[in-house]
Amino acid sequence: GKTAAFSIPIIQNLLAEAGGNGRKSVRALILTPTRELAAQIGDNINAYSRHTRLKHTVIFGGVSQKSQVEALRKGVDILVATPGRLLDHLEQRNTSLKNVEIVILDEADRMLDMGFLPDITKILKELPPKRQGLMFSATFSPEIKKLGQSFLNEPVMIEVARQNTTASTITQELYEVPDGKKTDSLVEILTTKGVDDQGNTLQAIIFVNSKLMAGRLSRQLNRYGFLADAIHGDKSQEERSKTLGAFKDGTINYLVATDVAARGLDIPDMPLVINFDIPFMAEDYVHRIGRTGRAGAKGLAISLMTSEDENNVEAIEKLTKKKFNRIDPVSYTHLRAHETRHDL
User: Fold this and answer.
1) Is 293 left (phi over 0), alpha (psi -120 to 50) or beta?
2) Which of 17, 81, 105, 267 could lock onto 86 through a cystine, CB 3.0 to 4.6 A?
3) pLDDT (tens digit, 9 = 90+) per residue, 74-89?
4) Is residue 338 very low, low, confident or very high in pLDDT (cuts 50, 70, 90)?
5) What are the pLDDT digits (tens) for 87-99?
6) Model pTM?
7) Where are the beta strands (DSSP E) in the chain?
8) What whole-number distance in Å separates Cα of residue 105 and Cα of residue 65?
């Protein structure tokens, strides 16, 4: 919905100008923090503008520049980009931003979290002073407001919900699990709660705090007989795209992810999100569980808490202004049966 909210008006406004003035330079720029989000926005724009004369392309790192250079030099109306790769192309003079009429900063808070502020500042200096600017952010910290003031002129702030709230369509559960028993608890939860009323396996995104844990946990789940794979920043773009594709087409049921996947993933009917690790930043909790309960659908978000997570849990409760209903440690009846089948 959010992508449509800014991309459809962009397309409409650009079409309103006679023939695009015949320019080959970029007229609308959309900056995103991750490759996955950039690709997803590009797919949406492709669908929305399919029957128009407008041209667009997507550029991000981790892949060859050759096809990107060709597209940029032919000229595009709408450019979707991650900051680092866009700077590479600007330095190589493969494109120009001098004729940009509209600039979008999507997931602005995530871009700051990922350290993109210096890159964004350099890119904004390449834009003409007269332009329309829009900034989208799930959270509004003082840093975000400062960024907005630096490139927006007397901006109007529009909120679709109270800041840092979680969707009412999401049921949130917090399991207090014994130290050293998180994997056991996860297996039990997937066995008992990871199925629908007909006994079909529910797909789930399982969030962890480190790339090392993502790989380790996905391998552990595979040993238990679950279909899982990991996605994180150390994987190549080809590997990440392949894993996402397998998850979307149902080849795998569980996507074990670091926060690189917490933003922008729009997977229809995602029923379940699990925080295997409680996030260090309270805002990331909001982003993670926002992968479920989308577009009015109901979703379930389960978090596993050990004794080390008390402070982080309290920070989430303070941010969201909502107390968790803490659930006692789960039993391991199903787990033992699962282990026995696996051993055999």
Assistant:
1) left
2) 81
3) 899 999 999 999 999 9
4) very low
5) 999 999 999 999 9
6) 0.61
7) 28-31, 56-59, 78-81, 102-105, 132-135, 170-176, 204-207, 228-231, 254-257, 272-275, 299-305, 326-327
8) 23
